[in-house]
Amino acid sequence: MPLTQPTFVQTDTAIPLTIVPVDTCADWLASLDAPAQVWAEASGFTGKIGQALIVPDTDGAVQTAAVGYGTEAERKRGRFHVSAALPKLPAGRYALNSDLPVNTLEAEALGWLLSSYRFDRYSAQNPSHAQLAAPHGIDAARIEAIAAGEALTRDLINTPASDMGPPDLEAAARQVADAFGATMSVTTGDDLLTDNFPMIHAVGRAADRAPRLIDMTWGDAGPKLTLVGKGVCFDTGGLNLKPGASMGLMKKDMGGAAAVLGLARMIMALKLPLQLRVLIPAVENSVSANAFRPQDILTSRKGLTVEINNTDAEGRLVLADALALADEDTPDLLVSMATLTGAARVAVGPDLAPYYVDDLQLVTALEQAAEAVADPVWRMPFHAPYETMIEPGIADLDNAPKGGFAGSITAALFLRRFVTETPRYMHFDIYGWQPSEAPARAKGGVGQGTRALLASLPDALKL
């Protein structure tokens, strides 16, 4: 699939576009010439978020424009506020006029690029005709690289399982690897058993499209960063079949894989001085005569045995084998990302990316970065007293503890059992889906936590 490339336009002439908060709107209006003031007042422009003002010249062409930036209290309730007004701007090339801090201006410029995203693989979509010249003072190449990585994540999630099965996810990963000179190997089908990835094989063996483990590496110097993404391309629930309503969005169950591929693309495009590894267990959780069953006991790559009490808790199984492989290399930082539990959505809703980590230095780096780049995250606890909930007695671990309590925490604790040699491990239980249209975020697949992670890496890995 083609890699989407949202970019700033190159232009010597652009329509000046002023960002106008409510509290300075009166002063800005007073700075206009008399005809423009009359026009603005007749248009009812007050600087509210989502408002756009177009001021024509005597020939009817756009002379200048403004977008509302609301109040400080309103801005705290959302992000990408400039983008809220983009649908109201006519076609043209615009240049932002603002004294916003550079990091805020970069976030708004990124929001503009993300607003141009369209998923048009199956049907033509109306393009965005309001284009942006790179604002002065920002790192335009960095913002473009981040936008391209986010667009890749969205494309992968939005593509239905008919065209995004394990072979297609492999092809998408290979395209990214080839674009940046990364090396990639893939273990497929029964070779998973030969190479000791038994739980990836068990989960994916019932599907017509063979399960596989994708292993991408890039960079030969610097600290080691390993990203592991859940690549369940469709999740029926297996023999514990999901009801139809719960199966409707399961094309997004490879959202963790999409997220780490998008993040990897950002890292490689920006040429960060590190050694990157990306591991993606790509499977379909299907129903067939050879599907794994409730009450089965699987032996993992780590040697830990796992009792299957629900075949719909399969994501942690495939991640476990991939994490065990990652742990053997003892990277400086190991991160897993997965659309893992409904419990996380109940806890924090669709907009926050909950994460688990014990290293307080990583917490500080991530949360400062998340605020700076408008990519909200929320720390959850690796609560040790709940460890007994994932110990069934008949095996080392239970993949689906009974009772329904603390489902996201017990899933995170389960994954942590497979990371024993790597001191710094972080897990994200993301949603990967925007349920309704929002500024810079079309309804559909979306990246979560990746921009915050990217911005935190200099502090987290001392780059």
Description of the structure:
By secondary structure, this protein is an alpha/beta fold. It has 2 domains: 15-130, 3-Layer(aba) Sandwich (Leucine Aminopeptidase, subunit E, domain 1), CATH 3.40.220.10; 143-460, Aminopeptidase. It has helices at 25-30, 34-43, 72-75, 102-115, 140-158, 166-180, 191-194, 198-204, 244-247, 255-269, 315-328, 342-348, 360-372, 407-416, 450-460; strands at residues 15-20, 52-56, 62-68, 92-97, 130-132, 183-188, 212-218, 224-229, 231-235, 275-285, 297-299, 305-307, 333-338, 353-356, 377-380, 397-398, 425-429, 433-434, 444-445. The strands form 4 sheets. Strands 6, 7, 8, 9, 10, 13, 14, 15 and 17 form a 9-stranded mixed β-sheet that branches. Strands 2-3-1-4-5 form a 5-stranded mixed β-sheet, with helices on both faces. Strands 11-12-16 form a 3-stranded mixed β-sheet, covered by helices on one side. β4 (92-97), α4 (102-115) and β5 form a beta-alpha-beta unit. The longest helix has 19 residues, at 140-158. The two termini are 32 Å apart.
